[in-house]
Every structure is written in structure tokens, then in C-alpha cells.
Write a structure and sequence with these properties.
The complex is a heterodimer. Helix content of chain A is 36%, strand content 28%. Chain A is α+β, with helices and mostly antiparallel strands. Chain A starts with a helix and ends with a strand. In chain A, the strands form three sheets. In chain A, strands 2-1-5-4-3 form a five-stranded antiparallel sheet. A five-stranded antiparallel sheet of chain A has the order 6-15-14-11-12. Chain B is of the alpha/beta class. Chain B has one domain: 3-Layer(aba) Sandwich (Rossmann fold). Chain B has a six-stranded parallel sheet, with helices on both faces. The chains are: A alpha+beta, B alpha/beta. The interface between A and B is medium-sized, with 32 and 37 residues.
């Protein structure tokens, strides 16, 4: 080495180390010795790993040494040196290997930069990232909890009827959608089934969804007629301090003389499907107007008496408007076919529809999906 | 022979050792889920919250490939993964080669694993500060398929680089594990390879494994560090050969 190069090695503003293949330090310069608070001579014969914190030594063995052995270099690795007085010195380290056919002549050249300021900054970044991740987790939990409040924890036990329901919020669960359903008792032999979709997403839609679901309960207890409930719900939503509207389908179930009658009314919502025992599927009722959009509403009631083997299916547009990767929609016809061809019974039908819709859009649901199916229990 | 890599890198770790056995054995190399060229989508934080999840994969690999009389060679944490796999699937494995094994990394009473709980915490911090350079953009690259040669370079660049969240969980699962009770259930011939100076799996840890597995063979390699298959590949091959070719 020329005297200039020698001087540079010794006095450079970064640490230099030369080690043998097993990490034993053969040469060291002043700066690395100063960082460690040791004379240069004390470094010779020690291994590079022995200068590191225990955690750093583990990283060295499991990552750094293999990288050096496999690639002949390792760059910009963050370590803590442990100085003679026990202080940690954050450094960035890069090494390369001067190969040789004789393993005893292999040399590892290592450059060590002190990185106190850089490490402090990085730790602040890490803290900020951790805090952002925690916020995201909290937001997701909030959205999930909120969304779970839009449906009963499980369909209630209605004597003589068998219910099945499915509910799949859109996407990864970070955002709250507006699909909801409810099944509740209003008198000894009377029940209400409600299923709907509030426009939009997010916190505002969520508060409106909660409002709509509660208002349907309150109104139904006063007057169970679905047309009257939809009318009053329209007024209530127009008076509500939001510009959200919704679609709802309401069913009034009455048990009388051993038979169940179902009165259905839709407020802008896809009509329920009625599947007969032979697999024939038709829509139940007549279309009505959106709820909470304009003062004038139109809604109509249609009543049927449930026969054994019949199943009524309610769903939101997350089913029919599900998109395939090629851009096509799931559509009414496919839904009718799946409902028609499913095995008999509410559970089989719900499961068949849900599975088919999820596979149609390859699990990438852009909208919430809510499905309810029910029929008479076979005695 | 099935070679399993340890915590930190991937199957490339075996490239100086595994070819030596190709003449006499069908050699199987794989990356643990979460490492190397594995599919990141296959990573299930629940399944891989214990070493049993990794052991189940080893058994699955052997069954899928319809392997018989398997010699399992596991480095570092994969030594214990091999112990668990062998105990879980009696009859599937003929022999175990444990390279730098440790049944428990943290000291416990008289037991010397070599680390304290705070040391493990420090490793996690050290890993975190070294993953600053990681970016999500790396992920598709790491998904590369080893059968496609054009991805070879990317794969080698991804060596020792893993999704930080996965690496952190693997580190915690590895270094907080305690498999001391599993050793006595090992019923197949076992070779323990110990490096003379290994900070990850120090000699007392290797001796514990030797003593706990009845009839095991113990060989100390004159090597510094935790990766004899990289630092002294010939000596590693020489130590494994008589054991795997013997009865």
C-alpha cells in the first residue's frame, strides 16, 4: 500500500476492517477502534460478530454471514456495536469478499459507518408506521363491529319456520357498506322480515343503516302493514339529516289456523323470489319506489299462503350485480337458475347462491351480499 | 434425502452440500412457506404460529412426492421441525441429520440455550431496522417460480429477504420454541452436527440434543458460525456421508 492509501485506511472517516473467512479481524483502523473505545490491537483476533449486540449477532449468523457466503457481498446492514463501556453504537455495515482458492487467504473487507442520526430517524419512521398500522387495525375493527350490528347475530327461532341467512361485507372489511337485514317478532304469531340496502358506503351510510333498521322495528310494532311501514319510513328518512336513500323489502308473516301467510312489499328493492317444491321460481309482489328519495311513494302489498316445499329468497344487489373478471354481471337469470336447481330447503339454497356468487367474482366482492331464505319446517 | 433450510434464508443454503448426495439419493429441496420462492399467499399466520405447522408441511411434501425411507437433513430450526415431523409420521423417516440444532434457545434453569428473552427481543428489533429497505414491490419478484430460469436472478436477489411480518413471526416462533420434550420421542437413528463455535446453537445446546435422543451420533465440526454447510461444506458432507450410507 502507498503511504497515502495507508493513511487513508487508518484515518478515514469510516471504520475499516479486514477479516479472515471465519470473521477473525486481521486489520482495523482508528475510527472503528474509537467507536468501540478500544485500541486497535485489542480488536485484532476477535471476530466481527463479537463486536455486535446479541440480537445483531443472531442477525449476523442467520442473514449476514449466509449473504456474504452466497453472494460475496452484503450491503447497508444495520447493526449495533457494543463499545467497551457497554454503550450501543448504531452503525451501517457493508462487506465484500476477496476470494481465494486457498480458504485461509480469503479476506472479508468491511466498511462501518456510524449512523446515530440516521437510526433515530428510522426509528421515528418505524414508530409512525406502527402507529399507522394500529390505526388501520382499529378502523377495520370499528367497521367490522359496526357492520355486524346491521344483522342479527343469528336468525331467530320461529316455531314452524326454518330460516337461513348469509351476510358477506364487501372487500377486506375496512369499509362499512349499507346492506342490512332483520327478523323480529311483533306479536305472538306475527313476525317481520326486513332486508335492504342503504345507498353509499362509510360512516354516514352506516348511521343511516342503523337508523333505517331501528325505524322499521319501531314502525312495524305500531302498524305491521308493510305498505304503511314503507310509507312512514320514507317520511322518516326524508326528515333525517342525510341525503341517503335506501331500498327495502318487507315481509309480514302471520301464523293463523296452522298456516303461515306472507305479505310482501318492496320499496325499490329487488322482489323476493318464491321457489316452489318442483323448483319453479317466480317473483313475489310488485315493484315499489325507492325509500327516502322523494316525498311521493308507491308501494304495493301482495299476500300468499306458504305451502310445504316452498322457499322465499330475499337478496341484495350485491348478488345480481356481482361482477366477473371479464366485466359481466351475475344477473337475475343466473340467480333464478341457481335457486331453481339448488337442493331443497332454505340452507341449501342460501349456500348454493352464496357459493356461486363468490366463485363468480373470484372472492373479490365489491359490494355487500345479504341473503335470507325461509320456508315451512317439514313435519 | 430432504434438505430443510433454517431461519433467515432459503434452500440455496444447501447448494454446496446437497449435490454431493445426488448420486445415491433422490434429493429434495424446498423453501418453507414464507421464505425464498414460496407463495406468500400460502402463508397462514395461525398455521405457522408453531413449528408444528412447518412440520406438517414436511410430512405433506414427503407424502405428495411418495417418498419412502426419508433421510431428513434440517439446519437450525428445521432440525426441530424434522424431529416434530418424524414423531408425527412414524415410519416415514429413516434417519435424521440435525445441523446446529437447539431444542430451546432461551436459558431455563440449568439448561443453557445461550440466550435470554431480551436477546430475542433485540433480534426482532435488529430485523426490523434491516427491513427498512424492503418494499411491497419486492413481493411479486419473490413469488417467482424456480422452474422459470429467467427469474433466477430475481430469486437469488431475494435470498434472505422475506416479508418482514412473516420473518418476524418466524423469528419469534423459532427462538421462543421449546422442543426439549419432543427429543425423547425420536425413534430413528439421528446424527447431530455441532459447530465448534456457534452463537446461535452453542455446544451445550447440541450436547443436550445428543443426550436427549437415545443412541444419537454426535459430530463436532471445526467451524465458526451457524452455517457449516456454507463455511465448511466438505467437512459437512464428510460427516453426513458415513451416517446416511451406513445401516
Amino acid at each position: 500500500m502507498t503511504s497515502d492509501a495507508q493513511g487513508f485506511f487508518e484515518l478515514a472517516p469510516c471504520g475499516f476492517l479486514v477479516s479472515s473467512q471465519d470473521g477473525t479481524i486481521l486489520e482495523a483502523n482508528d475510527l472503528i477502534a474509537n467507536l468501540l473505545g478500544l485500541p486497535v490491537e485489542d480488536l485484532l483476533g476477535r471476530t466481527f460478530a463479537s463486536l455486535l449486540s446479541v440480537g445483531g449477532r443472531m442477525f449476523h449468523e442467520t442473514h449476514y454471514a449466509p449473504m456474504l457466503a452466497m453472494h460475496g457481498e452484503a450491503k447497508e446492514i444495520a447493526f449495533d456495536l457494543v463499545a467497551a463501556d457497554g454503550q450501543r453504537v448504531p452503525v451501517l455495515v457493508s462487506s465484500n469478499v476477496a476470494g481465494n482458492a486457498d480458504p485461509s487467504l480469503v479476506r472479508i473487507r468491511t466498511v462501518v459507518f456510524e449512523a446515530r442520526g440516521r437510526r433515530t430517524y428510522e426509528q421515528e419512521l418505524l414508530r409512525a408506521r406502527r402507529s399507522a398500522e394500529e390505526s388501520e387495525a382499529r378502523a377495520t375493527e370499528l367497521a367490522t363491529t359496526l357492520q355486524e350490528s346491521f344483522v342479527p347475530p343469528a336468525p331467530p327461532n320461529v316455531p314452524g319456520l326454518e330460516f337461513s341467512a348469509a351476510y358477506r361485507p364487501a372487500g377486506a372489511g375496512r369499509e362499512v357498506g349499507g346492506d342490512f337485514y332483520d327478523i323480529f317478532q311483533i306479536k305472538a304469531d306475527e313476525w317481520i322480515v326486513a332486508l335492504g340496502d342503504v345507498s353509499g358506503k362509510g360512516v354516514k351510510a352506516a348511521t343511516v343503516t342503523t337508523f333505517v333498521r331501528r325505524t322499521i322495528r319501531a314502525l312495524s310494532i305500531r302498524d305491521a302493514d308493510p305498505v304503511a311501514v314503507l310509507h312512514d319510513l320514507n317520511d322518516a328518512l326524508l326528515a333525517h339529516a342525510s341525503d341517503k336513500f335506501c331500498t327495502v323489502v318487507l315481509l309480514h308473516l302471520v301464523h293463523e289456523d296452522g298456516r303461515w301467510s306472507v305479505t310482501a312489499s318492496s320499496g325499490g328493492h329487488p322482489l323476493p323470489l318464491l321457489r316452489d317444491a318442483d323448483g319453479d321460481v317466480r317473483e313475489l309482489g310488485r315493484p315499489g319506489s325507492l325509500v327516502g328519495a322523494i316525498a311521493e311513494t308507491s308501494a304495493h302489498a301482495s299476500t300468499i299462503v306458504l305451502d310445504y316445499g316452498q322457499t322465499i329468497v330475499l337478496y341484495t344487489d350485491g348478488v345480481t350485480e356481482a361482477r366477473h373478471a371479464d366485466g359481466s354481471f351475475y344477473g337475475d337469470a343466473r340467480l333464478v337458475r341457481v335457486v331453481s336447481e339448488a337442493r331443497h330447503g332454505p340452507h341449501a339454497i342460501t349456500e348454493a347462491v352464496l357459493d356461486d356468487v363468490l366463485s363468480f367474482q373470484h372472492g373479490d366482492a365489491r359490494d355487500d351480499i345479504a341473503i335470507i331464505a325461509f320456508g315451512l319446517v317439514r313435519t | 434425502m430432504v434438505f430443510a433450510h433454517g431461519f433467515g434464508c432459503d434452500q440455496n443454503m444447501w447448494r454446496l452440500v446437497a449435490p454431493a448426495f445426488e448420486d445415491c439419493f433422490k434429493v429434495v429441496l424446498f423453501d418453507h412457506v414464507g421464505a425464498g420462492g414460496s407463495d406468500p399467499l400460502a402463508y397462514d399466520p395461525v398455521k405457522y404460529s408453531s413449528l408444528q405447522g412447518y412440520a406438517a408441511d414436511v410430512v405433506d411434501i414427503c407424502r405428495e412426492l411418495e417418498l419412502e425411507s426419508v433421510v431428513f437433513v434440517g439446519h437450525s430450526v428445521s432440525a426441530m421441525i424434522g424431529v416434530l415431523a418424524s414423531n408425527a409420521a412414524p415410519g416415514l423417516f429413516d434417519k435424521l441429520v440435525l445441523v446446529g440444532p437447539s431444542a430451546r434457545y432461551i436459558d431455563d434453569g440449568d439448561y443453557r440455550g445461550g440466550f435470554s428473552a431480551s436477546d430475542i427481543e433485540e433480534l426482532l428489533v435488529s430485523m426490523e431496522s434491516n427491513y427498512l429497505g424492503w418494499s411491497r414491490q419486492m413481493a411479486p419478484m419473490i413469488m417467482g417460480n424456480a422452474e422459470q430460469p429467467e427469474l433466477g436472478r430475481e430469486l437469488s436477489d431475494s435470498f434472505c429477504r422475506t416479508d418482514p411480518a412473516i420473518a418476524a413471526q418466524f423469528a419469534a416462533v423459532t427462538f421462543l420454541s421449546d422442543n426439549r420434550k419432543d427429543l425423547s420421542k425420536v425413534s430413528v437413528p439421528t446424527l447431530v452436527l455441532q459447530c465448534l463455535s456457534d452463537v446461535i446453537a452453542p455446544e451445550p445446546a447440541g450436547e443436550f440434543v445428543r443426550d436427549a435422543i437415545a443412541g444419537s451420533t454426535y459430530v463436532v465440526l471445526d467451524a465458526t458460525g451457524h452455517c457449516p454447510h456454507l463455511s465448511v461444506p466438505s467437512a459437512t458432507i464428510d460427516a453426513i456421508t458415513p451416517f446416511v450410507q451406513g445401516p
